[in-house]
Structures are given as C-alpha cells and as structure tokens.
Specification:
about 70 residues; single chain; mainly alpha; 3 helices
Length: about 70
Amino acid sequence: MNLFRISEMEQKLKRDNIQIEKDANKAHYEVSSKIRKTIKEFGGTISEDLPTFKKSLKELEKENKKY
C-alpha cells in the first residue's frame, strides 16, 4: 500500500505541478484517503489495522547480525 501511495503522490505532484508545502499536504491527504477507502471496499486491511511486531526492525537486524 505504501509503495503504491508514494508512486501515486509523486505522479500527482508532477501532474498538478504542486510546489507549495500546504498544497502537497492537502494532495497527500486526498490521495491517501482514496487509497485507504479502496482497500477497505475490497475487504483489505489498512496499515494501522495490521498486527504490530513485538520487536522493532532494528532489534531484528541486530539479532541477525550475530549469526
């Protein structure tokens, strides 16, 4: 979902020639809202509803470097 959102945001910023931070924030909100709505409509799970891990990515990387 995040890669798709990022890709769509980049395209919107270019396509609409958005250069002001306030406008970019508004566009980001609009794009993200539409993507989240679509995921929900198809029965998918939005990112904040996914389970959280007990260990952070940094902790897991540290553990794996030991081996």
